[in-house]
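Service request form, structural biology core

Requester: graduate student, group of Dr. S.
Request type: structure prediction, single chain
Budget code: on file
Notes: please return the result as structure tokens.

Sequence provided:
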Amino acid sequence: MWDPKQYSHFRDERKRPFFELLARVDVDAPSHVADLGCGTGDLTRVLTERWQEARVYGVDSSSAMVEEARRRPSSESLRFDVADLAGWEPPAPLDVLVSNAALHWVPDHGALLRRLVEKLAPGGVLAFQIPANFDAPSHRHIDEVRALPRFATKLESVRRGHAGPIEVYESLLSDLGLTVDAWETTYLHVLPGEDAVLEWLLGTTLRPVLAALNPEEGRAFLDTLRPLLRQSYPAHARGTPFRFTRRFVVARRGR
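Core staff response, request fulfilled:
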């Protein structure tokens, strides 16, 4: 259901949080590094440039994304796998485990974090960033349209992203014995183009929704959603302002 071309829209806005997360990862010479939810692998390749001696694994549940990642030139130290993010097992304990805007699709973050910590080597670092704008007008409007009788039955079981309070992540990981650095950032993106917020959502949040609908239903869904988004996110000559909050966690396991 994921479309690499659509996801690449607003590439700069989507990759900025990755670099802000990575800047807080203080590891000199890791042997094994993984990127969970690697997408097309562009940012995974950044990990190979920073840690040139490391074996790096890019993991994504979307075969379309991984196929695109494999098409692009890469070093021999980089491998891409199609796998469930929670269930993937690394070939060796990880010194760095990164996930940028992917874990919000996985249910039960408490159980998930325990599994991810188990994959770390002693002294290993878990670093993740997740969107936390699920109460924003964009997502409220999607929920409104999802609840309409025309769509409700088909979309009842379609997953919705979620993020817990940042204090919960700090507490869970601290209780597991990790040293935690956690913070939150709200970006104000000014998006270019017509129906810019809708175009943003088409790259992520709306993918599972549209995958559950036939083409006619999908068009009807978007035609219903579009005016709601235009009202909440009016366009200006300079673009469409779009507030977006993200939560960041960098946690180091004890040695």
